[in-house]
């Protein structure tokens, strides 16, 4: 216990040093005119990141009655505490490097009057009061009047700043911003994916804390609280009125599953989900109604853009087809062309996305799944037919589709993780191919985060080779004829290892294989699968992000 207390004290001290260094760096840049001009964007970056860092500091180390007078930091396990301390240590190193570099770089040019008072003007005789360093008195080397009359040592320092130190300072500050973003994600993950993330007192604190609100953690807490209510059947009724249905009847069908329509001048989209009624039932049973209301409540809750899920208005049972219709606010324009699914785009030979566009799409989808899992939410129906792209307001050809802005639909089996679900039997190869072997045909295991990651891996494979997964079967060995689900998985893994490296690179191939095989080197995980989520972020999301930066 003494060692843990020592970690807390050390973390507070190091965090305090980190904040002071950040403020000092901002002050240095602002006080020196050369820096203020050359590092204007960097100064804004530090100012923004310092705001996040101060909110994190307040959130982590303020004692709260919600934790029995302890700090949030003390609720984390020792491994998480040490990891946060190591990240803050890296931040201190980055800022110390920036501070040292800025302190030894050249000062800003001074007006002529100041030069005369300092005696520096003697190198050029008497300077007129109208002559300043900003005047265009340059030689062929592009040096100002002052630079031509200064000492060679000062000139070398200025040239060094122009050609070397300025870039190095920007690189250090960029590293600082990335590390600070990493710290934000570590605190977020440990606050919501760990054991304390399901504690009611903790969630209420995260919803009400001003620091948590500044960080956007209150939205995540609200989602988890709604998930608890949904699991207990406490969600409000979100069944839409019959009046909506007459409006939907005038809509336009999209790829069989979706319908776009306009109501009171605003665009909406209906996502039609098959609902398998018990043979003795003529309508929605109470348990299913409760589940639908819980799901609609989650889908209606305001969410960060990273979720890539539009706002849900509600649901409606369609007796004629025995389907469920979920109604969403459409991200598209009512006067633009129709949305298109990822599956549709994959099947268009004329649509050839750039390498960067494919990586951006993979990155967006991976972040969306990670965010869903952090709030203990399982999708269960991740397939390329459920990923939609909406054209820009002016419409245009398929080439105008922004692959970096996918929207996730298909929530027919989606649920909070603590809902018990084995799912329905479904042996359609076009859908089964996206399911983990344990979930194909008659499911043999309860749905888990691993299964959504597998489905993502299938979509990442499709994005890399830009072909539907169902087309990856061998002519003599079709998916529907394979003996076991493992055979289907092995076929996809083989395709990933063979076809992805020349198209997307070895790193992309490796992360797709990890998603398909579940090989994240995770053992002895927590109830919330926090180690899996950390590994997924580092080995998939961050790996995709690094490649994107290099393109």
TrEMBL record:
This is DUF7580 domain-containing protein. It comes from the Eukaryota. It comes from Lasiosphaeris hirsuta. Residues 334-542 form the DUF7580 domain. PANTHER family: HELO DOMAIN-CONTAINING PROTEIN-RELATED, PRION-INHIBITION AND PROPAGATION HELO DOMAIN-CONTAINING PROTEIN. SUPFAM superfamilies: Protein kinase-like (PK-like) (SSF56112).
């Amino acid at each position: 216990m003494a060692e843990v207390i020592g970690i807390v004290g050390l973390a507070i001290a190091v965090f305090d040093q980190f904040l002071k260094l950040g403020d000092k760096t901002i002050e240095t840049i602002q006080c020196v005119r050369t820096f203020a001009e050359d590092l204007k964007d960097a100064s804004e970056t530090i100012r923004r990141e310092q705001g996040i860092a101060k909110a994190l500091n307040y959130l982590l180390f303020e004692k709260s009655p919600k934790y029995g007078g302890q700090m949030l930091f003390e609720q984390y396990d020792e491994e998480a505490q040490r990891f946060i301390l190591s990240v803050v240590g890296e931040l201190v190193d980055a800022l110390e490097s920036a501070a040292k570099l800025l302190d030894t770089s050249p000062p800003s040019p001074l007006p002529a009057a100041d030069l005369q008072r300092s005696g520096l003007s003697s190198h050029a005789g008497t300077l007129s009061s109208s002559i300043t360093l900003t005047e265009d008195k340059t030689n062929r080397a592009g040096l100002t009047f002052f630079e031509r009359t200064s000492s060679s040592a000062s000139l070398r320092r200025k040239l060094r700043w122009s050609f070397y130190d300025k870039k190095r300072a920007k690189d250090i500050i960029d590293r600082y911003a990335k590390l600070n973003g990493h710290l934000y994600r570590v605190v977020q993950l440990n606050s919501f994916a760990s054991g304390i993330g399901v504690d009611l007192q903790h969630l209420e604190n995260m919803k009400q804390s001003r620091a948590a609100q500044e960080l956007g953690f209150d939205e995540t807490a609200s989602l988890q609280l709604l998930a608890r209510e949904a699991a207990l059947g406490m969600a409000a009724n979100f069944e839409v009125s019959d009046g909506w249905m007459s409006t939907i009847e005038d809509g336009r069908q999209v790829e069989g599953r979706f319908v776009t329509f306009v109501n009171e001048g605003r665009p909406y989209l209906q996502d039609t989900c098959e609902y398998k009624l018990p043979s003795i039932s003529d309508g929605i049973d109470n348990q299913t109604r409760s589940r639908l209301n819980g799901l609609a409540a989650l889908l209606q809750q305001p969410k960060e853009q990273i979720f890539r899920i539009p706002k849900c208005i509600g649901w409606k049972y369609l007796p004629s087809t025995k389907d469920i219709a979920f109604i969403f606010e459409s991200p598209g324009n009512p006067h633009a062309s129709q949305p298109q699914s990822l599956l549709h785009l994959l099947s268009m030979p004329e649509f050839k996305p750039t390498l960067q566009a494919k990586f951006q799409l993979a990155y967006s989808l991976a972040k969306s799944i990670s965010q869903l899992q952090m709030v203990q939410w399982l999708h269960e129906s991740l397939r390329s037919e459920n990923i939609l792209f909406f054209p820009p307001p002016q419409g245009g050809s398929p080439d105008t589709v922004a692959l970096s802005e996918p929207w996730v639909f298909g929530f027919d089996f989606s649920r909070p993780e603590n809902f018990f679900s084995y799912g329905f039997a479904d042996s359609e190869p076009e859908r089964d191919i996206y399911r983990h072997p344990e979930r194909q045909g008659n499911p043999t295991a309860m749905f888990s985060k691993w299964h959504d990651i597998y489905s993502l891996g299938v979509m990442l494979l499709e994005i890399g080779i830009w072909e539907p997964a169902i087309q990856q079967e061998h002519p003599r060995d079709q998916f529907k004829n394979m003996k076991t689900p493992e055979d289907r998985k092995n076929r996809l893994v083989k395709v990933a290892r063979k076809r992805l490296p020349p198209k997307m690179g070895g790193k992309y191939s490796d992360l797709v294989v990890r998603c398909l095989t579940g090989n994240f080197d995770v053992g002895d995980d927590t109830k919330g699968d926090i180690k899996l989520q950390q590994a997924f972020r580092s080995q998939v999301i961050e790996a995709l992000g690094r490649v994107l930066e290099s393109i």
